[in-house]
Amino acid sequence: MSVPGRVFAAVFSVGLLVAMFVPILRDPPRDGFPLSNYPMFSEGKKKARAEIGHVVGFSREGRHRPLSPDILGTEEVMQAHQTVRVAIRKGATAALCRDTADRVAESSDHGDLERLEVRTDVYDAIEYFAGDKSPRSTRVHASCSVPEAP
Amino acid sequence: MLRLLVGGYAVAYLLVRFAHIISVSGMSATQWRPVGPVVVLAAPLPAALVVISAVAAVLLGVAFVAGWRFRVTGPVFAVLLLWVLSYRNSWSMVFHTENLLVLHVLVLAVAPSADALSLDARRRGVVLDDTPHARYGWAIRLMGAVTVTTYFIAGWSKLHNAGWEWVTSDTLRVYVAYDNLRKVELGAGYSWLGTTLAQYGWLFPPMAAVSLGVELGAPLALLHRRIAAVWSALSWSFHVGVLVLMAIMFHYPVSGVAYVSFFRVERLHDRWLRWRQPRPAAPT
């Protein structure tokens, strides 16, 4: 291996590995891409309190169900969750409700829905799967009607 | 062989996820939060440019895998892959499933990864030589170091943010229940097994200890090939566990391709050549 080749390999290797540690050397550590502090599931979480921001559809018969990520414009559940959270944080829930209602109106799978709510429900995550599915509290951020199908 | 496996995986990933990658252009600008090299943009790109960059990444990825004009196409593909995936992660949600793939492609792109089993090698009439050489070995070792560093940092973050209570408390159990609940309440598929096991709190501290051990112990894989093989198997099992309990797919590690730099994958080519050789006729 030539000397310039060795120098390049050494500099690139050390540089890349040092760069990978930069996110955790910052105060506070910082997430990013492709260099990250990989913060997923790293916080201490002793209480089962789960605050879920989501869009819920209500049918004419009074039944309700959460809307799936694809109707929120993504196939990723985490991206859908962020879409709702960002809308709540930035006060854009009315627009999110309207846009989602337009998609619902175009979807044949959601023909029974007449009204949507963008809401935050608080659950106990452990009790939820033990059978107690009722939210401990609910906050409705926006509500809108589903327009007639085109 | 590493270029074929990692590059092939990257191209397949881009094709399978193509619709999702370009769908981000339909998202609300309120979600725009650029990461990586995309921070140079003040606002989202027009949808047409998003599609063009994704298509270009696929085409250059094919050139990368084929080893065609690799000195140019290799680095350009790596940069384009970084750009396309950074862009898709710039909508208030950084997925951590693509970081390692991008870093591996970057390493392969700057190394002489197309000196064998490539169109460039065929054009030059290169004769295959299996002798280990530092010219090639440094990139393989760097890929291994990059792999273990990602795991070590993930483990470090847990200790930094939660301390050893991440292992001894109910934290992992609550995360499994919380993540599945979030999926249910967002109308997505979830893990029945994870939600069932969440009722048995005593199961989770041992699982948390093993998970953290795999992450913090990752650098040991650099000490010896056999340790690397054991660690790779443990790490793969860890990701399968995450998939089974939380319905979260870390596709690159679960596919096994994330760990190929720890194995003598060139033997796959030798085996293939032997398999292709005509067998001597049986004596009559």
Task: Write up what this structure looks like.
The complex is a heterodimer of chains A (150) and B (284). Chain A is of the alpha+beta class and 150 residues long. Helix content of chain A is 37%, strand content 23%. Chain A has four helices and four strands. Chain A has a four-stranded antiparallel β-sheet with strand order 2-1-3-4. In chain A, strand 1 and strand 2 (64-66) form a beta hairpin. Chain A is elongated and about 75 Å long. Chain A starts with a helix and ends in a 5-residue tail after the last strand. The relative contact order of chain A is 0.14. With 284 residues, chain B is mainly α. Chain B is globular. The chains are: A alpha+beta (150), B mainly alpha (284). At the A-B interface, helix 1, strand 1, helix 2, helix 3 and helix 4 of A face helix 2, helix 4, helix 5, helix 7 and helix 9 of B.
The major sheet of chain B is characterized as: none
Percent helix of chain A? 25-40%
Give the DSSP E fraction of chain A (strand runs of 2 or more residues): 15-25%
**Number of contiguous helices of chain A:** 4
Shape of chain A: elongated
How many β-strand stretches of chain A?
4
Radius of gyration of chain B: 22 Å
What are the segments of chain A in which pLDDT stays under 50 over at least 5 consecutive residues? none
| Class by SSE composition of chain B | mainly alpha
Quickly list its features.
heterodimer; A: 150 residues; alpha+beta; four-stranded antiparallel β-sheet; 4 strands; 37% helix; B: 14 helices
Question: Helix and strand layout, with pairings?
Answer:
The complex is a heterodimer of chains A (150) and B (284).
Chain A: H1 3-25, E1 49-59, E2 64-66, H2 77-89, H3 93-106, E3 113-124, H4 125-130, E4 137-145
Antiparallel strand pairs in A: 1-2, 1-3, 3-4
Chain B: H1 2-16, H2 18-23, H3 47-66, H4 70-88, H5 99-110, H6 119-124, H7 134-162, H8 165-168, H9 171-185, H10 192-197, H11 204-216, H12 225-246, H13 251-255, H14 266-276
